[in-house]
Amino acid sequence: MATYPNENAVDTNMEENIMTILAEGRKKPVLIPSLPSQPRRIRWADHGWFLINCNADKYSPPLVPQNYKNPSQITIKEPKVDYKGWSNSLHHWGEWVEKLKPKYGSTWRLTGIYNAIVASTYRIKRDPSSIVGLASYWCDETNTFLFPWGEVTITLEDVILLGGIPALGKSVRDPLPNDMTDMNSRLIDERLRFNRTASKRATHPLWLKEFMERDQDDDNLEHAAFLSCWLSLFVFPSHPATTLKQYVFPIAVRLSQGKKIALAPSVLANIYRDLTGLKNYLVNGGNKGASLGASEDGSLVLWAPLQILQMWAWERFPGLRPRTFNSFRVDRPRAAMWHEAGIKLDQEYVHEVLNRPNGFNFRAYMVGQLDWYKIGESQAESKYLFHQFARCLNVSELVGMDCIEQYLPNRVAWQLGFDQDVPSPLQRAKHLGWQFAWRTYELEAPIMLFVPPDHQFEQRVTLDYLNWYHREMRVSYQGSSSANGEIIEID
User: Fold this and answer.
1) Nearest to 301 by CA among 83, 133, 87
2) What is the pLDDT of residues 39-84, one digit of tens each?
3) Beta strand segments in 41-167, E
């Protein structure tokens, strides 16, 4: 059992402080091992580790999708998709990163964006068949992939580790404090100056060239301009793709002054949104309807940084990986493994891999025998990693820049090292406004208490979950023959 005090707390007496409990160990039999589609070779353990839904809807049953369309119902064979959010580095971008790293690297580390900035210099190649193949199993009612062998998804853990993007800090929608508005105004003025040039707008290449070559009277302005370019191009891209976005200025200003911003929930919300858009496009035969947008050739336009989803596919499904890729090193962002690695797969092969019952890597981020959040080199780093991991476990709303999506890690607890039980639904707060939705994500208690489990090499589920999955979720999958399996009854 571990407790992690808020950095502002002085008194850590648990009797005097409110606690947020995200997980617990309790006596409840679990089956070892057992995917929902494979209740065989059963062994038992009488004790399990389970996630707790702190924002549960106590009056509703577990969420069972009602409108899920499985891949057999997809009619379009050659989808036209324009991955506008899949940004590769600008010319000279790496030089700008290296120029500012010596002076501002410590600030990037403080705010948790160091790995994300370094990772933006890597080139992640796209395998369209993998992205489309994954999207065909997407369920927008749960924000999970419903494979015949079980339910998994891309989580905050994946965004933190593959994107290097932090999950701690204020919301991206928080208003800028009054003492930071001056720098924000300066950035706006700088952007407006480009309207009077031949280009008529502040494109990313011109913005980079302007600030890299200018004799700087104020290095802080260059730093804020750099972070604005990084956010606009790599974190929150949107239409028009080549133009620097003014809406990132408040975030850039706060980050430049060492203030933490939780970027990961917003990025993940955008990924969920685009997966839903792509799935709808596939099941509607290429009819975009109320889609995310269209390019000139009629392609579906996606804006999320889906290179993170590509890396997730390679990390989680070894059968989809390129033949050669870089070795993992703890001194580099994890994305370095996939820099310049690439493969183009056939769609039928992708579906065959995705349907393999034993083809998914549940614990992709082990470092030796330890989970990634247990390898801090100092007390402060260990505390930071545990706080990051805590956000990965919290059932909540994800507040994006222009969308709000539900995050249900209790449906995929086995991905996070916990035992899988029947998941309680989230009490939605989206309709109350983003501030109320954000409160479900924040963990403001002076002490956060949760029980990180020892590493488990096998996926374990409760009997309740196994029977619920076969009674409810298999029906939801609309009769997929791969989902067949027995229901077990034990007195």
Assistant:
1) 83
2) 555 566 667 889 999 899 988 999 999 999 888 777 777 889 999 9
3) 43-45, 48-51, 81-83, 138-139, 144-147, 150-152
